[in-house]
User: Fold these one by one.
Assistant:
Number 1:
Amino acid sequence: MFRIPTITKNLLIINVLMFLALIVFERMGVDLNYTLGLHFFLAPDFHLYQLFTYMFMHGGFTHILFNMFTLWMFGGVVEQVWGPKKFLFYYMACGVGAGVIQMVAQFGEFYMLASGQIPGFNLGMAMEVAQANAPLLNLWTTVGASGAIYGVLLAFGMLFPEQRMFIFPLPVPIKAKWMVCIWIAIELLSALGTSGSQVAHFAHLGGMLFGYIMIRYWRNHPGGGYGGYGRSRGQQFFDRMKDNWERRSHRRADDARRQDPRRESDWDYNARRKAEQDEIDRILDKVRRSGYDSLTEEEKRKLFNGGK
């Protein structure tokens, strides 16, 4: 936990604490998901603050486990690239955007249901019909950080499109950009192919949509909000990885020399280490510029052997 970036760590802690509070209050007869969850905007129990509070509530252990695991896995990397302020703004904006899209989808469902049951129904009658069906509309409650989490997934895919990942149950690694495309396709098909689902697929898509708009804006306005797109921070992130790798490599070599000082002279050792390090530096620079897939098999072998 001490190595997780500040905002990601605090988001994990707050979500877990809210889930524990949910369990405690349920035993007292109070449903926090109902109070802090996001209600349909035409429902009497809708409040504007729910657009922020709903993303810290969850419907069960599996729900929060998946969301927090994904936040831990991808959020820390994105935060290190963008910095805490920009990452927090992005996370919250994706969560709020997901809630807005979810309510738009709910209104579409509400309109279709009303049109099918009330002859001559139109938008002018929406509020009257909503008031007449208030108890039912209050049951349309959305909870979960999934919208913000899907926004983080999109950010990772756009920041590191060539990064290869294993996604269960696929037997081979796929690039992050294709992972994002697969998730979008699954959510879109699920949203269009199911009705009355307990999963807010449109909220997931909404988080990605708002995330995409923000990232595109930051790319086109590099001098604006929160220091632009964060390429310099991305460079620092990879530089830190390189520095850590170099320190570990030097430490292993020094330990080996101390164990067998007669193995080679200081001159030979220093010359060999410099040549090896120069080659590794060149390969790492190539990775930063063009991605891991741009390496030849020989370069990959050298990087792998150097890492050992």
Number 2:
Amino acid sequence: MAALGYLSRRAPAEWVVRILLAVGTAWCCYGAVTQSLAYAIRATSPERAHAISAGDGRITALLSELQSGPEATSTERTRSDMLARAALRQDPTAVAALATLGLNAQIRGDTVSARQFFIRSERLSRRDLRTRLWAIEDAVARGDTVGALHHYDIALRTSRSAPDLLFPILASAITDPSIRVNLARTLATHPIWADSFISFAAGNAPDPRSVANLYTLLDKARVAIPDWSRSGLISRLLSAGDADLAWSYYRSYSPNVSRDTSRDAEFQISLVTPAPFDWNIVESAGTSTSIQRSKNGKGVFDFATSPGIGGPLLRQTQMLLPGDYVIEGHSTGIDQAERSRPYWTLECSDGRTFGRFVLPNSTDGNGRFSGSITLPPGCPVQNLTLIARPSEDVSGVQGQIDRIQLRPAR
């Protein structure tokens, strides 16, 4: 009762003040909540965000960007201009609004105004992708390759969506020698997007020859190129019938290789993803294959197959000249009837087979083996392949090869 009496004695003016403060607090809370909600949905639904918070310059700028898309009509562009100008009144730092005005001016053919808007946008921020794309196009139109690549670099450094848009364009552009040289210089500065683009170009550039030329420049600049990028490029060149360039590029980064012999006779080279000209393990169901290190530190190819299972185990692409060749090496652990022993074969890339050498059991000749193969003219690319034959033995076929070489007969 005392409390009720105390409340009843409050002056009316005090009640008015308290009510106004409560209303003001509620209004501020409402404004903060709606502002937060609008900003949270601005990227996925700029129209709703603008309806909730029409006075936010950043949201108004995003809506102006939406209205100025590539399929926008002239009426929509006029509305986007109005929204962009309103955004700048609300927030003079609304970069997206400046980019909208610049894009619309450019589409209307007003290059002078477009340049002014985009220059203002760039001064405020380097992160707006539309501003960067315009700068790239402007540099290209002026024949400024270095400037265009500078803007490519900035866009790819500052925008997460830029690689999806710009990598295909850049990978197509490297057919131009001038762009290729300047791009190699840019990549030599190790931008954060360098590794991604190098790998992208290997598998996606329209012209693999240009990629090979770019990679050669990068090798000279000592820019690291992943194994899988090199091997992917060489595979593409071979598939495209560009075997000579494939071999030339492989030789450029592989010291002491020779075209007239197989390579890595003792399995010393360890690569994450070998090129076709390196030893490639063939994996299939029912087989176990691997290149390991032996006790003496040398490499060894280890293989095993399940009973009744056969097929290719190991392969290396060759570019031998026509002539007589010797295949020689050393094995351990092979102990099979002749009809079940693995064999080496030299096949043309078109499927023709020119030789077959059945491996002896490892107990014969202390594991050493040697045979001959003749390669006729008309087959510039071949595959040297170790093939397992099905065995009825309960343990299947197993063994190791620690040396293998195909060389010209002397």
Number 3:
Amino acid sequence: MKRQDYLSWDEYFMGIALLSAGRSKDNNTQVGACIVSDENKILSVGYNGMPTGCNDDEMPWERDGAYLETKYPFVCHAELNAILNRSTGSLKNARIYVSLFPCNECAKAIIQTGIKEVVYWEDKYADTDGVKASKMMFGLAGVKLRQYRPTGREFVLKV
């Protein structure tokens, strides 16, 4: 008889997104993303961080201060990194698992690549204009939104 307590696809892919978030060097917000095909094959992963070639020891990580002294004009979000990390092939009809609901800039990239579903862990910025714009665009583009429901199952990774 086969094992019955294996991870569901949602648990597995959200787990990959959460694990990817652990690569982020942001001291406030770590976000991960995992893009999968409609055949449940991982197409790409990403996390929020500085652009390739920019030494992140020399970049600002602050949230407050003059714009160019903060992380905001520089950090590449997890969703965009996952999209850009896919070097070949289409993302059409794929779904993306993200640990944080996408901002409006990432929403545009998600829509433009043809991703059809966003599965997100948390939506802590739901009241911001950026997330409201994301939801509006996703609705207009027919992108399905689904909040991941944690199962409460614990999975320990020893590294």
